[in-house]
From TrEMBL:
<protein>
    <submittedName>
        <fullName>Transcriptional regulator</fullName>
    </submittedName>
</protein>
<dbReference type="InterPro" id="IPR036390">
    <property type="entry name" value="WH_DNA-bd_sf"/>
</dbReference>
<feature type="domain" description="Winged helix DNA-binding">
    <location>
        <begin position="16"/>
        <end position="95"/>
    </location>
</feature>
<dbReference type="InterPro" id="IPR036388">
    <property type="entry name" value="WH-like_DNA-bd_sf"/>
</dbReference>
<dbReference type="InterPro" id="IPR011991">
    <property type="entry name" value="ArsR-like_HTH"/>
</dbReference>
<dbReference type="InterPro" id="IPR027395">
    <property type="entry name" value="WH_DNA-bd_dom"/>
</dbReference>
<dbReference type="Pfam" id="PF13601">
    <property type="entry name" value="HTH_34"/>
</dbReference>
Length: 99
């Protein structure tokens, strides 16, 4: 039988990815700057972690121009929401001493 720790999703192991998904779960869509400010990250750090979540299919990226300025927004995909909820359930089970 597999211990619950093996059911944790490695995509959310890093605190930044955990934070990105938490913010996206609480909001329909979040701009790059809002996400960067909420998590107190540098541009490069945020971009690399969001890219990893996008590659996993957990985050959807929308790019457009507002006037002449680029505007990037992020949303959690349906797959990402499900995976994150499963991850949180596994964490809760782990904290409760589940195996």
């Amino acid at each position: 039988m597999k211990h619950v720790i093996h059911t944790l999703n490695k995509a959310f192991d890093h605190r930044v990815r955990l934070g990105v998904m938490a913010v996206l779960m609480a909001n329909d869509a979040v701009s790059f700057n809002e996400l960067k400010e909420a998590l107190d990250l540098t541009d490069g750090n945020l971009a690399s972690h969001v890219a990893a979540l996008e590659k996993a299919g957990y985050v959807q990226v929308s790019k457009q121009f507002v006037g002449k300025k680029p505007n990037t927004t992020y949303t959690a995909s349906t797959e990402g929401k499900g995976a994150f909820q499963d991850h949180l359930a596994a964490l809760e089970k782990l904290l409760r001493g589940g195996s």
